[in-house]
Amino acid sequence: MTIYQVKRGLGILSILLSILFIVNCSGDDSSDSAAQSSVIVVTGAINPFGEVNVLGSSSSQNLQVTGDNLVSNLSISVTNSFLISLDNVNFLSELTIGASDANAINQTIYVKFSPLVNAIGIINGTLMFESDSAVAKTVSLNGVGLSAAPAISVNNASLNFENTSVMNVSDASTFLVDGANLNTVIDLSVTERFEISFDGTNYGDNLQIPVETANVETVVYVRFAPLTIGDATGILSVINAEVENVEISLSGNGVPVTYNYVAFNQKALAFGNGFNQSASQVFNLHSDLSNISQIKMYLQIDCPGTGCDDWDRFANVKVKDQSTGDWYEIGRYITPYWVGTGLLERGLEFDVTDFKSLLVGTTELRIYIENWTAKADLITVDFDYIEGTPDYPYYAVSEILGYHANSIDGVPYGVGHSFDLDKQISVPSNAESTHLRTVISGWGHATPNDQDGRPCAEWCFRTHNVVINGVAAFQHNLEPLGCASNPINNQNPGNWQPDRAGWCPGMVVPPRVDSFGTPLAGTTFDFEYDYENWVSDGVGGNAFYATSTYVVVKSNTPIAKPVVAD
Question: Alpha helix locations (H) across 224-281?
Fold first, then answer.
């Protein structure tokens, strides 16, 4: 072996020993062992921050962090709209703690929510802890960003009020005014016919919310105070110097003042068992008609424990003419089968303004139902006197035909009779309006039937003429009224749905008003009621038309009754 070979062998051995030494030293390096066990430990929690104005800051919350064998700095950061601090004074978005400090003691980390300009609504964020060779830790953050801009909100864009009598006030409605970030007062004002209040007692057209409570929710009461009849609209303005005005639309309907008088109250009408089919009584009604434009009468039928009459009956309400003692029919109706009129809030409605000259002060009324059973109908009658400018301040009325005692006391139809249907009527010289008012309903099942099988006079459709001075001036068509659509639709098992000739069970028999083109002041004219020709064969029984006709005159000066002569 040569010296070269020996040296070469020793060199190789030296290299191998060096490699072995390096490997052994690397395996024993304590810093490499520590890096493999680096840990970040976070204790505590951060609760949701709640609502914070943008560009503002919440109170801080805190938690603790420490390191275990960290070999590099601990980096701490938060996402936008959150800030962190080590001293609860200086807040940043990023912090660094040296590894030795982090490994030595728990470090307190303070966190605040500080929403940026556009961070409005629910804002979610993250608090992050990072260090080389350690698993990163994160903590979820949450807050609600509120706009810092001044604002006013209301909880209603419009308020609609119920019908309210003129010169009275409606029930109050309320709405809420809520300011945000305001530094000045809120003024409220309403237009005419509406009023506002803070306490629901003291009302006016202007209010002011002071600065101290401008950013606190405030309840405002609003009511409708109409000055005139008809629809009314208005605006409630909410005004602040820092924001645009907020407006609430207001609407209501002014209705006339109404005076109500109850006449008969639950009066029982029947036959037998101590009942009577009619009742008369004196009542004190409205005494000053100078500003009454309309009189409405309402009639309600209630049923006793035994139930109402089983049949559809002729019925009416009359007023006594104190000057003559005659009873004038002011409203006629046909009772419903079996039931009352409870499906109608106020019962049957009649316009009785034509009789206003008789419905004043002390007034005697009579009610009647052709009820032949012992099951009484309980009758309530009341009147609404509605304020307003009347078409004419003075009315007068006279009866022309008064065949309205009951269903079969009417004019016989299809047979000869002695009823006087021809009259002479003299109109006062100061009359400025003249019209006729007729109520007519047929009864009976007389034959021969019409081609469609309808007997007379309940079912047969007819056209009658009102003849003035020998000329047919007006026609009365006794035709279907649509009985099946009657709102009193619970009359089963009664036969209430088929159409009669000009009336229905459970409905008002409609008045037929015929107005003259001129008032006929100071003249006398001939009147005749002409029923359509038809001849009974006497087989199906009798037919009748209960008929009442009145002549009504009006004037701007006191007026006498028309004179009616045979």
Answer: none
